[in-house]
Amino acid sequence: MQANDFLIKKWCFGTGRSKVREEAVMDGNGELQTFRTYPKYRTIVFKVEKATKKGKQWTVEGKQYSSLNGEPKTTKLVLDEKRGLLFAPNQKRPFLKIENPGKLTEEGLPPVGSLITVNKKHAIVTAVGRNELTVYVNNKIQKITCRPGTVKWHSDKILASAVGEDAGNELSTEQSCCLQRRIRDERTGK
Fold first, then answer.
1. For the chain, how many structural domains are there in total?
2. Is residue 1 part of a domain?
3. What is the pLDDT of residues 142-167, one digit of tens each?
4. How confident is the model over 99-131, as pLDDT tens digits?
């Protein structure tokens, strides 16, 4: 791990974790209305500014993004490395190292950090290659092959905004414009 690496933690919470559910609720007039609830996700993105390793423990300092509108917090974490994943003490969800978060992918492949479904399980994309995805699913990292255009995904807006802040420093002007346009389109829902 080195400076400018990105770590991501994402988990599902609330009712309707596995699939869309219909719920009935009383409105203000006392009438019963039904609505759909979708799985809700929480994302934390950590941009590493300084990292040191001692044994199987990483001490990392950097900025933690957990909101689209809020400012990032400067944080220091101690992470234990187990089975190739990075765990914070007393937390059961690992941080995943994201490879090339600002890189534009092939047309039809999900960007890094997005959420997909693999064998009816939610998976987080950690790396994208030519017709290949590296995903975190069932508490382990797997490589899967796919044809472009066959995978549906939900992009991670917090990761896109964290990468977008530094896009001008690390990417070419054309890549920076494309990335900023993608972030703007995701925020406006186009």
1. 1
2. no
3. 898 888 778 777 777 777 777 766 54
4. 777 666 667 788 888 888 788 777 888 888 888
Inside any domain, residue 99: yes
How far apart, in whole angstroms, are the C-alpha atoms of residue 91 and residue 184? 33
Asked whether residue 27 is domain-assigned, the answer is no
Structure tokens at 92: 């059961």
Kindly state the percentage of the chain with pLDDT values over 70: 77
Q: Which residues contact 47 (CB under 8 A, 6 or more apart)?
A: 4, 5, 6, 62, 63, 64, 65, 72, 162, 166
- Give CA–CA dist 131/25, Å, rounded: 44
DSSP string covering 5-20: -EEEEEEEESS-SSS-
The residue range of the domain holding 160 is 6-22+32-188
Q: Is residue 66 in a domain? A: yes
Helices and strands of the chain, counted as H and E runs: 3, 12
Residue 61 has pLDDT above 90, yes or no: yes
